[in-house]
Amino acid sequence: MGKPFEKELENVSSTFEWALNQDTSKFEERIKTSLHKPLIAIGSGGSLSACSYAVLLHQQFGGIAKALTPLELNYSKSVIKDINLLFISASGKNTDILFGFKKSIEQEPANIINVCMRHKTPLAKLSEQYTISRTFEYDIPVGKDGFLATNSLVAFFAVLFKAYTNQEVNKKFSIGPDKTFLKELKDFINKVSPIHTFITLYGGWGQPIAVDIESKFAEAALADVFISDYRNFGHGRHHWFAKRGKQSAIIAIVTPEEEAIASKTLAILPAYIPKLIIRSNASGALASIELLVKSFYLANSIGKLQQIDPGKPGVPAFGSKLYNLQYASMFKDEGGKLTATERLAIVRKTGVRSLTELSKEDIDKWLKSYKQFLKNITSSKFGALVFDYDGTLCAHDDRFKKELTKEINDAVITALKKGFVVGIVTGRGKSVKEVFQNSIEKKYWKNVIVGYYNGSDIGTLADNSLPNIELGSSESLQLIESSLNKYFTDQKRVTIEGRPAQITIKVKNTNDWSLTRKIILQVIHSLDAKDVNVLESSHSMDIIDKAKASKLNILKHCVARTKELGIAENCLCIGDKGQWPGNDYLLLSTPFSLSVDDVSALPDNCWNIASAGVKNAQATLEYLDKIVFQKDHMKFNYK
């Protein structure tokens, strides 16, 4: 099993160049939108070294991050909710990475990113089932690694570097070891023996390399290795050399940032201790990649000393059994007598990370409310389905498309063909009319009710006079818009658009949202504008005229149409932002309301009962799949 390690080293430079030429734009977009929340990077074996590198990159751009193995992730599941996860796996198929992914889905993190170095991996196939997860696969030309992660690891480092930094690499930069390093490495090897212990010191961007040295030396049985940062080494670990110095050596990982502390630390240690400095003259994240490759040459040299090829050291039978151990069933879910569905719905509703945060009395109370809600919504008869648009019928990636996706369109058309009413209420104007007219046959337009500009202008899809953009704005909205334009002069970053009965503010970069939001709210309160309301989505804010705009306005129009048709009058409302200031909080305050994302804190409406890890348009499809059509009504058949 494996490949000759020296043969793998011959390919690392071409692998690095290949990785830098990969299209990482979508990966970069996903990464950048995750920076405002903590990140856990998950991997096993060599991939854990890439996780350590990802952690440093994430922290460089202001995010809190930590690297964990899949098993460690399982023990940390109480903190997974509402944070970001990054799974790194070359093959995307080992038992541990799939275990970690499945366990994390149950906790519904904010976002899951998977990166693999092969196409059509089991991890990617699993990921496709969930809205919150996205996989990026790169088909590395050199194929599968030998026993140790080498070219795949270089590729991971390069892809992560490109996605996080978006920096061009100088053509003169080389990751291959120079003659000086190779000479110093040869001299070092001549001073150590097969029984030496190696203490690896690091700081900053050298940390992932220390992790990888420990990994490779242990996995290939090359030598004992301890790792420590330069200062933690001074807190007792130096004592190892007082007792075992004659059979110990130092490996110091150095970039320009650590040059001073490394020099002073090494100068204090006894001169007889063999020392190897793995140095990069590059600064920042790029240094890690050069250091990584140089550490491969160290592993190769120690392998020769031990007469072990690190690329194919030989795997005992018990090793294969351990690697493929099926252990998921050994970790039972905590939830008492609750079903997984009940547990998930209550966690979503209460906003806790785990049910352990709730008392038994609280759990019993919420379970009772959940069951009563289900009883009400499944026993009622509906004549109309009323939807929010963005985030409910339209996924984030589809927001600029001119038609509904086929799956959503088919589901909507089915209800219309059966003679029922469909309502759409949105902060948009003309663009949403174009989407539905492009998607739905004209003969059904009279049964499609559209509420433009958050329900301030309502009519059928057949009414081409709507939306009426000539409708004026209130004095308060005009004053607010004027004030905001003074603060947001860069329209490339923040756009402010005055619309009938509302102002819409959008940010191009989600990282700008927090400050933008504070300024908007401060302006509104400083002007004492009591006749407006603020509604938010994930990427925009609407300031609306309370007297004219409300998503509830659409319900009376839908009910009027159901009466004309002689069908059931209740409306089943579906949206994605049910808690104020979410833009669906009024629509989902109705008794028969389902959320495909955020829920309100009220117990009798706006529950999210979609599958774990499924949100937005995909959750809407789940709900619509449970609609049963009768002659004069629809039923929501949830089991």
What features would you highlight for this structure?
639 residues; alpha/beta; Rossmann fold; six-stranded mixed sheet; five-stranded parallel sheet; 22 helices; 21 strands
What does this structure look like?
The chain is α/β, with parallel strands linked by helices and 639 residues long. It folds into 4 domains: 5-171, 3-Layer(aba) Sandwich (Rossmann fold); 179-306, Rossmann fold (3-Layer(aba) Sandwich); 375-467 and 550-636, HAD superfamily/HAD-like (Rossmann fold, 3-Layer(aba) Sandwich); 475-545, NADH Oxidase, CATH 3.40.109.30. The protein is built from 22 helices and 21 strands. The strands form 5 sheets. The chain has a 6-stranded mixed β-sheet with strand order 13-12-11-10-18-19, sandwiched between helices. The protein has a 5-stranded parallel β-sheet with strand order 2-1-3-4-5, with helices on both faces. Helix 4 runs parallel beside helix 8 (151-165), helix 10 (207-219) runs parallel beside helix 13 (285-306) and helix 17 packs parallel to helix 22. It is elongated, with a radius of gyration of 29 Å. The model has no long low-confidence stretch (mean pLDDT 94).
